[in-house]
Amino acid sequence: MRVFVDDDACRGHGVCAAVCSSVFVITDGGYAEAIRSEIPSDDEAFVLEAAEGCPERAIHFHDSEG
Protein backbone atom coordinates (compact mmCIF):
# COMPACT_ATOMS: atom_id res chain seq x y z
CA MET A 1 0.00 0.00 0.00
CA ARG A 2 1.17 3.51 -0.84
CA VAL A 3 -0.15 6.67 0.82
CA PHE A 4 0.13 10.42 0.44
CA VAL A 5 -1.46 13.54 1.89
CA ASP A 6 -3.02 16.08 -0.48
CA ASP A 7 -1.33 19.32 0.56
CA ASP A 8 -4.12 21.43 -0.92
CA ALA A 9 -6.82 19.62 1.07
CA CYS A 10 -5.07 19.16 4.43
CA ARG A 11 -6.02 21.66 7.13
CA GLY A 12 -3.83 20.21 9.89
CA HIS A 13 -6.49 18.64 12.09
CA GLY A 14 -3.95 15.98 13.17
CA VAL A 15 -6.29 13.00 13.22
CA CYS A 16 -3.94 10.99 11.02
CA ALA A 17 -0.92 11.58 13.24
CA ALA A 18 -2.94 10.67 16.31
CA VAL A 19 -4.11 7.42 14.73
CA CYS A 20 -0.88 6.37 13.00
CA SER A 21 2.20 8.32 14.13
CA SER A 22 4.52 5.80 12.48
CA VAL A 23 3.30 7.06 9.08
CA PHE A 24 1.94 10.59 9.58
CA VAL A 25 3.38 13.67 11.29
CA ILE A 26 2.28 17.26 11.62
CA THR A 27 4.97 19.50 10.16
CA ASP A 28 6.25 22.73 11.68
CA GLY A 29 3.91 24.48 9.26
CA GLY A 30 0.94 22.74 10.89
CA TYR A 31 -0.03 20.32 8.15
CA ALA A 32 0.08 16.55 7.85
CA GLU A 33 2.74 14.72 5.94
CA ALA A 34 3.26 11.03 5.24
CA ILE A 35 6.79 10.24 6.37
CA ARG A 36 6.61 6.85 4.67
CA SER A 37 4.97 6.38 1.31
CA GLU A 38 5.23 2.59 1.20
CA ILE A 39 3.22 1.18 4.11
CA PRO A 40 4.01 -2.20 5.67
CA SER A 41 1.05 -4.54 5.99
CA ASP A 42 1.16 -4.21 9.80
CA ASP A 43 0.24 -0.51 9.53
CA GLU A 44 -2.37 -0.75 6.75
CA ALA A 45 -5.38 -0.89 9.09
CA PHE A 46 -4.15 2.23 10.91
CA VAL A 47 -3.60 4.10 7.64
CA LEU A 48 -7.13 3.21 6.51
CA GLU A 49 -8.51 4.38 9.86
CA ALA A 50 -6.57 7.64 9.53
CA ALA A 51 -7.91 8.18 6.00
CA GLU A 52 -11.48 7.51 7.10
CA GLY A 53 -11.08 9.86 10.07
CA CYS A 54 -9.62 12.76 8.10
CA PRO A 55 -12.22 15.57 8.13
CA GLU A 56 -10.85 16.97 4.86
CA ARG A 57 -10.44 13.59 3.09
CA ALA A 58 -6.84 14.61 2.34
CA ILE A 59 -5.30 11.14 2.69
CA HIS A 60 -5.12 9.06 -0.45
CA PHE A 61 -3.80 5.55 -0.90
CA HIS A 62 -3.67 2.72 -3.37
CA ASP A 63 -2.47 -0.84 -3.54
CA SER A 64 1.23 -1.05 -4.41
CA GLU A 65 0.46 -3.61 -7.08
CA GLY A 66 -2.22 -1.54 -8.80
TrEMBL record:
Residues 1-29 form the 4Fe-4S ferredoxin-type domain. GO terms for molecular function: 3 iron, 4 sulfur cluster binding; electron transfer activity; iron ion binding. Its cofactor is [3Fe-4S] cluster. It holds the Pfam family Fer4_15. Gene3D superfamilies: 3.30.70.20. InterPro entries: 3Fe4S_ferredoxin, 4Fe4S_Fe-S-bd, Fe-S_cluster_ET. Keywords: 3Fe-4S, Electron transport, Iron, Iron-sulfur, Metal-binding, Transport. The keyword Metal-binding applies. PANTHER family: FERREDOXIN. Ferredoxins are iron-sulfur proteins that transfer electrons in a wide variety of metabolic reactions. This is Ferredoxin. It comes from Mycolicibacterium litorale.
